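Crash report, auto-generated. Payload:
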Amino acid sequence: MRRIFVVSKNTFKELTRQKIFLIIVIFGLTMLFITFFLYPLSVGEQSKILRDFGLSAITFFNTLLVIITGATLLHREMDKRTIYLVITTPVKRREIIIGKFFGLFSVVLINVFLMEVFHQLLILLNDRNFDFTMFVALYPFIYEISIIISLLIFFSTFTGVFFSAFVGFLFYVIGHLIESLKLFAEITKYPLLKFISYAFYYILPNFEHFNIKNRIIYEGIPAKEYFIFSSLYGLIYIIFLIYLSILIFEKKEFK
Amino acid sequence: MKKFVYSFLLILLIVNLSYRIEDLREIKEKAREILYLPKGEILKYLALDHKNTLSDFYWLQFIQYYGHHLQTDRKFLYMYQIVDIITDLDEKFLHAYTFGSVNLASDVGDRVKAESLLVKAMHKNPERWEYPFWMGFLNYVFFKDYKKAATFFRISTLKDNPPDICFRFYAFTYYKKLKDLETALKLWIYMYEEAKSDVEKRIAEDYIKRTIMKIHMRDLTKILKEFIKREGYKPKSLRELLEKNYLKSIPEHPYGGVYYIKGDTIASLVPKK
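Recovered output after restart:
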């Protein structure tokens, strides 16, 4: 446990020192700020636009941050050859994987929180009160982003940086378009295609399960059952991917 | 000093070029409007989990488009397509449906498109009272289809948590008072109070003034006919109606114009802006 914490802490420090991290954070905050100046053009829809753009900026830029930095998490250790030092210490390989995951996860968590605080300040300036339902809207996103981190770590164990980043992005896109696969499965006449479509639909990560931005803005907070099931779904997916990553990483030979 | 002069000259050059490019782009304005209108159904897939934001982006574009054409040629060729995209991306965007359909009815005069936008809204949001109410409103004030208006006002009362206004207008239909100008005035005053923006307030205010003018002309015509019937001749001006106590005062023209006698009815002269 202590060793995992040390790996996480080092990953955290390393990531926050990267220029790309700062650029994306600044860009995300700028986007939020620009949203505030769109008011005169929105004809009575200031509040809605401020919430929509704010949530989008936070989710989009953090996803971008994870895809760019997550794909290099393990590769940087290998390129700099620090992995040879690490595996000779008492630190187990599984602890490296788990530590790396929590390192990036904590960066994203803090980042999302700070961006949302800034978002809340803009909402306060506009509406004269806070809207804490925005934090609730971002809660499922934490699971989504954690699954993306796990996917990136998983692919990093056996492929290159660019391929990991590409596949990570691909999964992000597929995860949000996956509902169409179910639609296809429902209308296709071929039993084999139907079976394959349904199989992929239920096996691949469905990121729409974590997307409640629209629902929060129009209908308020969903029932607690939704949070329980979506949290469980996210957690199990993360555990499964991290487990697979550990299996591969423990068998990996470093030449 | 030299560096400062060079920097200043470069900035001047940038500003000048920007100004020229702006001029060149104006020529292609119409083409650009077409280019940026992909199908909402396709955009839905491209937007991934940012459908609402993309919808908002198109909303901002729509407001600029509307404002630009309102001040220039008053031709809104792509109004329906833009609002259709906005509501494809965000099916619950109430303001886009209502603002779009009212403008399609009042500025474009396209009943089919204005109604189809509200039909789409009702189909996507069957629980909302607002859409049948607005359908009733459009049919009442723009298309003068009182029967259809009555039907939709009634439908709006059957939805989730309808406000008093739905029942009030349903009651008007029940008592066969739908052709009343006073009813139209009440509707427009309600729309004015509920307006979310200055643009909508201006539209509602204009229709309030128009309706008040029609009420004045209707009432004055009634009094004029009474005068002719009793006195046996046509008065030279409205002042004569005042002098003979047929009228307590000449109503103030809402547009700052004047009412005058034209044949055996009352006409209105509105000053040019």
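Post-recovery validation: The longest helix of chain B spans residues 198-231.
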